[in-house]
Write a structure and sequence with these properties.
6-stranded antiparallel sheet; alpha+beta; 357 residues; 8-stranded mixed sheet
Length: 357
């Protein structure tokens, strides 16, 4: 399912969006790669669904048929730039979307969510485009959040729950951007847990990325990020680390996503590299090798998969998922936590054995 959302925290606005653009029974996604046969199937495409117009500090994200979205975005950025200084730029953007959708079947209509920087009494403010049907939820930590896409209700429910359960005095949250980074880390931790507990089931499409702005500046959009799932076996007399189940390594500067996992048939670590296309330049292929041995994450999110009991007759274990800060004793008491490699520099090799490749 597609998920795109607008969130706001302490003066920082952001769009969260997934990367998957193709799905179906014959499509292999980063979730299902390695757990199903390649015969008769093809690999899913990954595309950044966020469109950034930096000179206006504007960010948009799209859901709907890929071909229709590309038709719309072919002329939208230039047209929007010419109107961005009007009093109601998001109303203008909404009118453009409505005009584009006129006469189209609902299955072909696109939905757009976005924001543009503004100011209110000298403080950062944002004009918001809430999407075609304006699905929203009010939260304590992220104000009113809007979402589009087939997974919008699932996403908004998670954001609201996350806002409620994370302590307001947690020292995880040092700024509005840190709030949004930790939310994105939590979303990807849930995705990673579902990937590892049941690789045959896609909960939502691909990896979640974010694009953020503070005032009139686009911020924090190029961080490298590693998400690591570690298996903890609870079936014995005492818990033990059983395996490094799966990892996602997000490298936006190289336009790549790497997934690695330990195979079920004893072949060791299986790696799969996924190219991330641009919404505006779908044919701009990434050339040359990735050189993953030079990849260094700016953030690491560790998700622990606690395996409980024995394997069932159907061949599945019962799992419980948590995401904590690399298991460090001095980590804040939070359900989800994303840490910088500097903070866990003495531990990072223990949790990232799959790199380099």
């Amino acid at each position: 399912m597609t998920v795109c959302a607008y969130v706001h925290s302490d003066g920082v606005a952001a769009i969260l969006s997934d990367l998957l653009v193709t799905s179906g029974p014959n499509v292999i996604t980063p979730t299902t790669y390695g757990s199903v046969s390649l015969e008769g199937r093809y690999l899913a495409g990954l595309t950044s669904k966020a469109l950034v117009i930096p000179e206006n500090a504007a960010v948009f994200a799209f859901s709907g048929a890929e071909s229709r979205i590309r038709d719309f975005t072919e002329s939208f950025p230039d047209y929007y730039r010419s109107l961005a200084d009007t009093d109601r730029p998001m109303r203008t953007a909404g009118d453009l979307v409505n005009n584009f959708n006129e006469g189209l079947d609902q299955s072909e209509a696109i939905s757009v969510i976005g924001f543009q920087s503004a100011s209110l009494n000298g403080q950062p403010a944002y004009n918001i485009l809430g999407g075609l049907e304006r699905y929203s939820v009010q939260t304590e930590r992220f104000d009113e959040c809007f979402a589009i896409g087939s997974g919008r209700e699932v996403l908004l429910k998670f954001i609201k729950k996350y806002s409620e359960i994370v302590p307001s005095n947690s020292d995880v949250f040092l700024s509005g951007l840190a709030n949004i980074i930790n939310l994105a880390g939590a979303l990807n931790s849930v995705k990673l847990f579902n990937d590892t507990s049941d690789r045959h089931k896609d909960t939502w499409g691909g990896y979640i990325e974010y694009r953020a702005a503070y005032g009139h500046s686009i911020i924090g959009q190029t961080q490298n990020w590693s998400h690591v799932a570690v298996g903890i076996d609870l079936s014995g007399n005492s818990p033990r680390m059983s395996e490094h189940v799966k990892q996602y390594h997000y490298w936006p500067g190289s336009k790549r996503l790497l997934t690695t996992f330990r195979s079920d048939n004893g072949e060791g670590v299986v790696a799969s590299e996924w190219r991330i296309k641009s919404l505006l330049s779908p044919n701009d292929n990434v050339a040359g090798p990735a050189h993953w041995n030079s990849f260094t994450p700016d953030f690491v999110t560790v998700c622990y998969n606690f395996r409980k009991g024995r394997m069932s007759k159907s061949g599945h274990y019962t799992y419980e998922g948590r995401a904590l800060g690399a298991g460090l004793s001095n980590a804040p008491n939070s359900i989800w936590l994303t840490l910088s490699p500097d903070f866990i520099k003495d531990e990072i090799e223990k949790f990232m054995p799959h790199l380099p490749i």
